[in-house]
Amino acid sequence: MKSYRKELWFNIPGRRAFINITDEVEGCLKDSGIREGLILVNAMHITASVFINDDESGLHRDYDQWLEKLAPHEPVSQYLHNRTGEDNGDAHLKRQIMGREVVVAVSGGKLDFGPWEQIFYGEFDGGRKKRILVKIIGE
Amino acid sequence: MKSYRKELWFNIPGRRAFINITDEVEGCLKDSGIREGLILVNAMHITASVFINDDESGLHRDYDQWLEKLAPHEPVSQYLHNRTGEDNGDAHLKRQIMGREVVVAVSGGKLDFGPWEQIFYGEFDGGRKKRILVKIIGE
Amino acid sequence: MKSYRKELWFNIPGRRAFINITDEVEGCLKDSGIREGLILVNAMHITASVFINDDESGLHRDYDQWLEKLAPHEPVSQYLHNRTGEDNGDAHLKRQIMGREVVVAVSGGKLDFGPWEQIFYGEFDGGRKKRILVKIIGE
Which residue, B55, B127, C118, C127, has most beta carbons within 10 Å? Predict the structure, then answer.
């Protein structure tokens, strides 16, 4: 069994964004030389997500508005978590909806994807350096 | 390390449905000959889910009504995504709540499940052929 | 390839709670002797979650209030599932938001975590013995 590990770093200027990371993950897979196995891609921070969906800008704005409705940022005083001095209580909730991680099959040396699947980093509390982990195991 | 791959195809007549796929996934596991490892089962489409819960028809109707409340199909004009000509903006949101994939342990050649765990395909934008992926790695 | 399996049991006195299980999972990893691979930690019951987030009591109360808003326990008659004689319809919904499972990378014999990541058992229908599964594969 082979294994491969890499961290990918981000520094999103605003509070929230969705970034397509499919090419970077494919680059990791190529580097690993693994042809059959599983890839785990996970946020290493607890106010960010990794998820798979469509690379369509209207949809991303729909996600942003929907998450803001389900877990609004303002007023920050509505979250007990923010009594610690943070203002990111909403980001911890949004991340649970969108998920921490994806696991993707590796078949024939490729990400084994359906026609529209793309991997995204979802940032809900940006403005600083944060990272995700790519771990691949297989042969 | 052994690996196994199979696609399962669906063509749901209506817009939404939950289909129990536990037997098909168990069939894949038997075919694979793998006794210890992990199974990944994921939707290959971005308006569908694979999830684990109870095979109880009342619960499935509860899920449907709840998802419709959290991310209503109508009016379709409420989703920017639908400006692309689609009417499935809601389906992309519902799928995030229910999840893309499950990872299940394989122990002694069986799905390592608690007493009520069953695997479901969740369709949120049916009426056409769609598929899921079963990938198994182990020994 | 090595594999390791262990069940962790819980008996939460009230209806809902979040329990930090990071130390128990780390203990499993140590027992397994696996240095590179993947850990799957999943609820074996369908009204409970395993998730990764922050060990901060204010945040946990925020989660509880938020889940109660998205899928209220009362009135129990609002859920068709409860016509089976159960009163836990809400717990099946809450568990979908928080997730069934996490997959964590194992690197150099350790849980490959970011600075604040901790693993939690989320109970939404307590008052009886329930369990989670820890499955590790790797080398």
Answer: C118
Q: What is the pLDDT of residues A69-122, one digit of tens each?
A: 999 999 999 999 999 999 999 999 999 999 999 999 999 999 999 999 999 999
Place of tokens 């949004």: A94
Chain A CB within 8 Å of residue B44 CB: yes
The CA-based angle A34-A39-A42, given to 5 degrees, is 145
CB contact under 8 A, A117 and B70: no
B43, B71, B83 ranked by CB distance to A58: nearest: B83
Record the pTM.
0.98
Q: Which chain C residues have a beta carbon less than 8 Å from that of B139?
A: 1, 3
Q: Which chain B residues are closer than 8 Å to C104 by Cβ?
A: none
**Residue B119 CA, distance from chain mean position:** 7
ipTM, two decimals: 0.97
Convert the pLDDT of each residue in C106-122 to its tens digit.
999 999 999 999 999 99
Of C80, C84, C100, the CB nearest to B52: C100
How far is Cα A109 from Cα A92, in angstroms, rounded to an integer?
35
The alpha carbon dihedral of B48, A56, A68, A132 has a sign of positive
Task: State the chains in contact with C (3 or more Cβ–Cβ pairs under 8 Å).
Answer: A, B
- Residue A15 is given by DSSP the state S
The answer to whether the CB atoms of B37 and C93 lie below 8 A apart is no
Residue in C104, B27, B100, B52 with CA at minimum distance from that of residue A113? B100
Please report, for residues A29, A80, A114, B120, C120, the alpha-carbon distance to residue B6 in angstroms, rounded to integers and kept in the order given: 21, 46, 13, 16, 33
Q: Which DSSP state fits C83?
A: G
